[in-house]
UniProtKB/TrEMBL annotation:
It comes from the Bacteria. It holds the Pfam family NAD_binding_1. Signal peptide: none annotated. One of its GO terms (biological process) is pyrimidine nucleotide biosynthetic process. One of its GO terms (molecular function) is 2 iron, 2 sulfur cluster binding. The lineage of its organism: Bacteria, Bacillati, Actinomycetota, Actinomycetes, Micromonosporales. Keywords: 2Fe-2S, Iron, Iron-sulfur, Metal-binding. Its cofactor is [2Fe-2S] cluster. This is Oxidoreductase. Residues 4-99 form the FAD-binding FR-type domain. InterPro entries: Cyt_c3_hydrogenase_gsu, Dihydroorotate_DH_Fe-S-bd, FAD-bd_FR_type, FNR_nucleotide-bd, OxRdtase_FAD/NAD-bd, PyrK_electron_transfer, Riboflavin_synthase-like_b-brl. [2Fe-2S] cluster binds at residues 234, 239, 242, 250. Gene3D superfamilies: Nucleotide-binding domain of ferredoxin-NADP reductase (FNR) module, Translation factors. Binds 1 [2Fe-2S] cluster per subunit.
């Protein structure tokens, strides 16, 4: 299979998450792509508009789930898709989160905004293999309650034994939950810093402060991984668009260990 040629996938499910964000379930039209590993991304082509990188948010056996926030021409075209519509898909590409982690590990997943999406396959993995891990802590932040992704699943995940905590930057009248930034949840969450794997994805500033909080709790730098973004074109290490220092993020990322990412987090614009 040519990694530069999109394969046709059909929208078989569409769920609005927020006013500008939708989750799409995609099934192969004919040919199917290889299975993904949690943390990887695909290149999704809106016919006649363009192609963008999107983290895989779920799916199995050749199906893919993606959560898309409409911010520009391509993502708005994807946001407008309806059941039965076709898209082109390439991939999956890039590095993964490294799950399953060793048995007995505590999993700490920290997501901000649309950065929650790439963590969701890890949530599915932890649910399917719950006894493998001691604590599974999921810390989610959003700007407002209306911006929270996957909110309909929170109760089910808590009932299944996940420690899922949510915070918003700005509350509305109906919000009885926590208000504040997501790194604040790290300070009080119940996990063993010496025996955890911490996976972080969100806006740059949120990742910086989350990592600072994880390090302050005593999490070793080598136990922290983050998902990083750069503009991408080819997705397979040919064009150089996604270069960040010595890395091509489509090939050496998007998931990068903190010891490698630390000096790059200082690079302006990230
Ligand atoms: C590895 C990876 C995984 C991603 N996963 C997801 C995902 O699961 N869901 C999702 O909704 N988006 C995801 N993105 C971001 C998505 O690719 C961009 O929003 C998209 O490329 C924007 O294209 P556009 O044509 O719609 O908008 P454009 O017209 O290209 O851009 C519109 C606005 O978005 C900004 N923008 C463009 N690209 C990015 C980017 N990569 N990151 C942040 N801001 C950007 C631009 O500066 C501009 O302000 C991911 C990006 C990468 C690199
Ligand atoms: S997107 Fe082309 S090299 Fe990474």
């Amino acid at each position: 299979m040519d990694e530069m040629t999109p394969v046709a996938y059909r929208v078989v499910g569409r769920r609005a998450e927020t006013t500008d964000t939708v989750t799409l379930d995609l099934a192969p039209h004919r040919e199917r792509l290889p299975d993904y590993r949690p943390g990887q991304f695909t290149m999704m082509y809106a016919f006649g508009v363009g192609e963008v990188p999107l983290s895989v948010a779920g799916g199995s056996d050749g199906t893919f789930r993606h959560t898309v926030r409409g911010v520009g021409a391509v993502t708005r075209a994807l946001h407008a898709l309806r059941d039965g519509d076709l898209v082109g898909l390439r991939g999956p590409f890039g590095t993964d989160w490294g799950v399953p982690a060793p048995a007995g590990t505590d999993l700490v997943l920290v997501g901000g905004g649309i950065g929650t999406a790439p963590l969701w396959p890890v949530v599915a993995h932890a649910l399917a293999d719950r006894s493998r891990y001691r604590h599974v802590t999921v810390l989610i932040g959003a700007r407002t309650p209306a911006d929270l992704l996957y909110a309909g699943s929170y109760r089910r995940l808590r009932r299944a034994g996940l420690d899922l905590q949510v915070t918003v930057d700005h509350a509305d009248a109906g919000w009885a939950g926590r208000v504040g930034v997501v790194p604040g949840l790290v300070d009080t969450a119940d996990f063993d810093p010496r025996h955890c794997l911490a996976l972080v994805c969100g806006p740059e500033v949120m990742m910086r402060f989350t990592i600072r909080a994880l390090l302050a709790r005593g999490v070793p730098p080598g136990s922290i991984r983050l998902s990083m973004e750069r503009t991408m074109r080819c997705g397979v290490g040919h064009c150089g668009h996604c270069q960040l220092g010595p890395l091509l993020l489509c090939r050496d990322g998007p998931v990068v260990g903190y010891p490698v990412a630390a000096p790059l987090l200082e690079v302006a614009q990230l």
